[in-house]
Amino acid sequence: MTIRFPRPLRPGDRIGVTAPSSGVQKPLLPRLDHAVQVVRDHGYEVVVGECIGTPTHVSAPVAERAAELTAMLTDPEIRAVVPPWGGETAIDLLPHLDWDAIRAAEPTWVVGYSDTTAWMTPLTLLTGWASVHGNNLMDTPYETPEGLLSWLDVVTAPQGPDHPLTQVPPGRYRVSGSFDDWESDPGFSAQGLNTEGRWTRLDGDGDLTVEGRLIGGCTEIVSPLAGSPYLDLTAFAREHAPEGLLVYVEACEDNAYSIARQLHGMRLSGAFDAATAVLVGRTTAPDTPTMTQHEAVLDALGGLKVPILADLECGHVRPWLPLVNGARARVTHTAGRGEVVQTLA
After folding, report:
1. Predicted TM-score of the model (pTM)
2. What is the DSSP string of 103-150?
């Protein structure tokens, strides 16, 4: 069975916006409106669902969120689904989604990260649909640094082995500590990349080139799925990636001890058995007195004897380097350059 890539978006296509996890607070609705307008300015029709507000930490009861998400994923007129952002408990959706209907539908692009990976990663694993681990809708107005792509670039790109998507990190990132004031300026677009930083090889020295099919997600979000049918990377590799997997993980906020435990659990469940390499997103999550975030990764995964490359732009630290779950990829790391080349084939 081959990976099912949704067809490239074209002007006039319809994009669905729903909040399967956290909705948008009233003071930030102008930011949502602005982000929607940015997408419309690219030539798309945008449909905003009913599950979008914030009655609690979720936008609506789980049955309603699951029904709206399933409806958008199976609607042949909706060519992409982009949540405003993540949240906290999207894991509750999994038994409520109509997986048979989704599997039978024509693939739709899905874009997101953070809590969205609770259902987006299983979507690729269970149905073979490619999906985009990239910035969320609320982040879309931000400028894209030179060398990187936006999710809008990825979902419109030509597909096939003759059309590689190449990204080169800018060598700078945003140190967290404060949020941009979207309430005062809903159109805020400056990335604020104020710190120099490059990729870090954790398993040793020397230049590195690794290949495989991409799959992964936020560590805190996907690790609870370990051992369940929703995170069976071994079966995915057997069916879709005999050449092996490039498994990526990224920590949002948990300290190094917690991240080590989560990665150990994933390893014990077999999540890295087919990995040709592990890619680790840059994080500002806290170290602990006796363990850094890098050491947490090595503690859990160093024994795999595969390359481990850290500080990639694929998580909660700006900027964002979109990765396509299911895409073939080649990742190169040298003293002077990093590069990710993805092929939607």
Report:
1. 0.97
2. HHSPP-EEEE-GGGHHHHHHHHHHH-B-EEE---GGGTTSPPPTT---
